[in-house]
């Protein structure tokens, strides 16, 4: 029994050690630059607002069984969601500015999760969980220690290697769960039944996803569509193998993931822009940290950054507090194509940064032995 126990602990230690080697950042300070990138991304166009929910008919209130919303008899009033939106916006600005970024990130995350419980009480959910997993992990990465107005103090709960290792495992699990479900129905060796076309037709004919190259998909030969099915399954089931192999292999898989999303944007009109931030967490932003450090010594740069944050804050506040019910219930079709082009731009930037990171990859500094990879009984990462 002791031999089995020792073997399990050894395998566990080696597993997390390999993952840490693939994900530990070359320069911890670069995570502070990444914090600003993520904050601006969220504030510019991805931060959720929930005030519109208060105007929804109570008859639509059908929360899932395991949801915070089940504790309520219906949708709360406007005051509840106004306060929630205010917390979301203010905490996000604090994340960008580095005002106790660890606590601000957790407050932003908690407020968003409360709001999303009600947002998903209409009988439909969204696939935005990875961006919140990113925030949870990065809150304990030490990304608030630099480039900050009120820096976080040194804390034993901060560990860049553990944070990114956990994020990588969550990403692998998310991909595996999607790929496993596809594998059950898509790998059928039957060219007359195609999983990719099932996705495409639902979006094309039901959701009016007919932009970019979508109109040409109906002309693709069956053999090519079968290749799409098998390629998607292999891609989504494979990230853990790349993660365990090496840092370069992991980043190569992330690069392929970006290309995969570009293809989805062109053919299925599904951009999944938030995933780009998750993938970019594993690149090296040291170059950006150095530029920010120099730029923020200049007064006009600080003024420009403050003005940009203020303008974006006011835009998001207007969306949150000046509710237009018709715009909230119905997705404005005139913005769909714009989002697709923005998604392509974002994925192009992500591909460029990942390729650059692979080509210029350096070995991270030696880490002191951590309890996370010692052969002990605790769950380790």
UniProtKB/TrEMBL annotation:
Domain of life: Bacteria
Transmembrane segments: 36-60, 80-99, 106-123, 129-151, 163-180, 227-245, 252-274, 294-317, 338-359
UniProt entry keywords in alphabetical sequence: Membrane, Transmembrane, Transmembrane helix
The name this protein goes by in its record: HTTM domain-containing protein
Organism of provenance: Rufibacter latericius
